[in-house]
Amino acid sequence: MVKSSGYKMIGTNGLFFPILGFASIIAFIFLSFGDLLSVKYKNEISLSFVERNGTNFVVDDQLFYINGWNSYWFMDHAVHDHSRARIRTMLQAAAKMGLTVCRTWAFNDGDYNALQISPGQFDERVFQALDYVIAEAREVGIRLLLSLVNNLDAYGGKTQYVKWAWGEGVGLSPSNDSFFYDPSIRIYFKNYVKTILTRKNTITGIEYRDDPVIFGWELINEPRCITDRSGDTLQDWIEEMSTFIKSIDNKHLLTVGLEGFYGPKSPKRKRENPEFWAADMGVDFVRNSAPSTIDFASVHIYPDQWFKNKSLEGKLKFVADWMHSHIEDGDKILKKPVMFTEFGLSDLNKGFDPSQRDEFYKIVFDVIYESAKKKGAGGGSFAWQFLVEGMEDFNDDFGIVPWKRASTYRIITRHTCRLAKIHGVGMMITRNMKNICKGKW
Question: Above 50 in pLDDT, residue 33?
């Protein structure tokens, strides 16, 4: 799914910190986040692996529903001294909201600050930045959902793999979709994945595949294979790569990274897909999520990108229907959890007001809460995207600094507390839960 031209792209490192206009906001931020820059690695928080039990996530045999977010930029910002502190600031701010899992990139292929410079060649400086991200998350008690490659061009993506193979004279085709079927590219990707999974963190001393702070792995962000609309090519790739990952790491959960579109043979393609084109992307939500090597399904929600002429009311109705449809698939067909790993509302919409985004967030959270009350397959949601102050150059039309808008902050923390109330404070891995939910139980 292609968002705005700035979507998930690297910008210049912005150093401008805007002066906040209201003394109350300044006081709030100072009191809440003034202690975030101290760097220690005490590993005080003990974490167990998140597992799957049917349609639910569990930790230590207790149900675990996720209130999460996206900060794709963590590894890139951890490379440089002047931007590294933003990772801890964001993680500690998230912990103060009761958030428990962050989705972020564990890839950067052949781009600025590339982790993988060329096939099988890694920049140790950037790898140590990823080590730092994982160590910081462990210190704060936030888990990470790590994505392994991009379907889009940002940060290299499958396009870069195709360029490498084509440049070395071993590629079958210059088509971006050859990423999924070219034997040489499959070898490139497997070598990359093995290197990531078996990496020994230079800070914690723990191999990634043995680290429970990693919630799980995502095969690819928003896969599409439009040159094979039947979906067979992508399905074969999913089955091969998920089997390969599980042969190396059977401790972590694995998902595909889907947007959630129903394929050409799905009975839901006309009724539930946003528009007719969605069935022609070479993907199918149910089929792609079905292999036993895939532990949970993933879905994205971008109504204003998928519809250009719907009213806000129509878009929000679609959001609720879209979510209910996929949770139903998780409950009745897949028998697996369903995670809404990206959701966002653009501020470029005509007549946009921040209250519209609040309403959108509330609908997403309400559907998750409905499912959680029934111990259903709606496993959690991840807002796209959260930033800290001074990151204007990295923002797109979906990003927010959540604590800068009091109403948004309340909606997020209210969702945290509702989930905690259902399944107990112990399920939400944060030091601040009692403070967060004081007066909200």
Answer: no
Chain centroid to Cα 86, Å, comes to 18
Which tokens hold the place of 89?
């600031």
In whole angstroms, what is the distance from residue 122 CA to residue 32 CA?
A: 38
Cα separation, 288 vs 295, in Å, equals 11
Structure tokens at 325: 């449809």
Residue 398: predicted pLDDT: 96
With vertex at residue 433, the alpha carbon angle to CA 427 and CA 435, rounded to the nearest 5 degrees, is 160
Q: What is the pTM of this model?
A: 0.90
Written as six digits, the tokens of 317 are 């109705």
- Residues 33 and 93 sit within 8 Å (Cβ to Cβ): yes
383-406, pLDDT tens digit by residue? 999 999 999 888 999 999 999 999
Residues annotated as catalytic (active site), given as ranges: 222, 342
How far, in Å, are 8, 146, 175, 303 from residue 159 at the CA level? 15, 20, 8, 26
